[in-house]
Hints:
It contains 13 helices and 12 strands. By secondary structure, it is α/β, with parallel strands linked by helices.
Amino acid sequence: MAVTIRDIARAAGVSRGTVDRVLNRRGGVRPELEDRIRALIAEMGYTPNRAGKVLASLKKPMRIGCLLPSVGNDFFDGIIRGLRRAERELSDYGVSLEILQVKGFDPAVHAGALKKLAQRKVNALCAATVDVLPVRRTVNAVIARGIPVAAVNSDLSGTGRLFYVGCNYLQSGRTAAGLLRLMRGGRGAEILVVTGSRNMQGHNRRIAGFIQELKKQPAPFHIAKIVESVDDCEIAYRRTLQALDVLPRVDCVYVTSGGVAGVCRAVCEKGLAGRLTVLTFDDVPATRRFVRDGVISATICQEPFEQGYRSVKLLYEFLVNGKKPEKSRYYTDTVIKIRQNL
Length: 342
């Protein structure tokens, strides 16, 4: 005979409601008691009834909070479309999203936004956020309250996040280096790197993968300077222009995140369009225009729609079944686009 919640509750000497809170990670149970209940669940071989859980979800709304640094960054439009598509498909099961959008990568802003979402009685959180200690602590505090957290687009180290859906940033950085080697035809290059933020794990890994691959090449590739744009086109324009003024020998501009329009504006203003190799990421309107105009040599894309869509689907499955996903990381495809295939 199958083990029931009633059996677990009787063995633990608690109510069925307490066991249900542990199973559904709703918090409010002493850590030592929760550990004992989970041990009994494993020992007695309890398996949730999937059909019953789905039927229960029809009666109990599931609210998923989403944090995105998307203000002023067109890239996240694709992620939002994926989030909303999953929300529509799961709406009959009571799933709804609350998307909180912020600008930039200020750790205090991100930590505050995560706390705000957690206070709104969400069942789970999906976050594209900065990978720094104050935010990690906030994420772990949210998880300790029984709210599972998934990382989307940029991963989080040192946290109990449930899973990550997004780009394989090391691979995409190595891909950019391979493209640069092919485009330079065996010649080396002096490289200006324009990144979004040193606080974003994904941006850092794109630089790391790029450098790792360049070190394998016989030609002399040199990183002349790294500047941060905080994914702001105006800041990207000013800092790229300043860098090009003092680095007249730059052969390549490697843009790891947003602010592409500002970078390209600076390149054009300096009369360097078509003379520099410009490598970027993602397929947004400004990037497409500059690829078609020959300012950007190639852009490397990462399926943002799939990132948003799969994140919500995986969180829903976890909330319904109580089982962690099979993998801790789900990488989307790395896709190279040039003028001929846009």
